[in-house]
Amino acid sequence: MVDVRRVKLPGVGVLHTFVTDDGGKVGVITHRSGASDLISFADAEDGDGRKVSLRLDEDEAHTLAELLGGTRITESLSGLDQIPGLSIDWFHVDYDHHIAGQPLGSMTERGLPGVTVVAVVRGDSANPGPDSDFRVFPGDTLVVAGAPEKVAKAFNFYRTGEFKPRSGDAPPGG
């Protein structure tokens, strides 16, 4: 576990720092204004005292945090891909898709049991475990889990309103 030190900077914000395994020092100054500074110090024993500082606005800081934290999430999800018979895929809803503007509904009630919409991602927020009356809009991303062939059928339904694929329809992820 990494030991993170927290220091209040009066009138500025908060400084969080930690030392890396190779002796470098990393810090983040979170300003009261919402901006953040990412700082990296060279190994103090090198004697050259180099420092790199990068100013990030609030949106950039969130993006960096997601990228750095996303690695663990991606690693966890990639492990799920190795479970035989389970597919987790993302369906991006476009304006011309059948599901656009419609309630999500239930695939079981539509005759396709074994497929679950785990979440609907809208903008910067996720709606986990949405109810069947949750309305889907263009730009939403549906996170769908189930057997690969059932996920493919669900994707086709979201596109066309039919379970049977039309010629030329791409499979999930394609």
Task: Describe the overall structure.
GO terms for molecular function: monoatomic cation transmembrane transporter activity. Pfam families: KhtT_N, TrkA_C. This is RCK C-terminal domain-containing protein. One of its GO terms (biological process) is potassium ion transport. The protein is an alpha+beta fold and 174 residues long. It has two domains: 76 residues, Nuclear Transport Factor 2, Chain: A, CATH 3.10.450; 74 residues, Regulator of K+ conductance, C-terminal domain (Alpha-Beta Plaits). Helix content is 21%, strand content 32%. It has two helices and nine strands.
Note the main attributes of this structure.
4-stranded antiparallel sheet; elongated; 174 residues; RCK_C_sf; RCK C-terminal domain-containing protein; 2 domains; KhtT; monoatomic cation transmembrane transporter activity; Alpha-Beta Plaits; 5-stranded antiparallel sheet
Summed up, the domain count is: 2
Order of helices and strands: EEEEEHEEEEH
Main sheet properties: 5 strands, antiparallel
Query: If you compute it from the alpha carbons, what radius of gyration comes out, rounded to the nearest whole angstrom?
Result: 23 Å
CATH topology value of the largest domain: Nuclear Transport Factor 2, Chain: A
CATH architecture of the largest domain: Roll
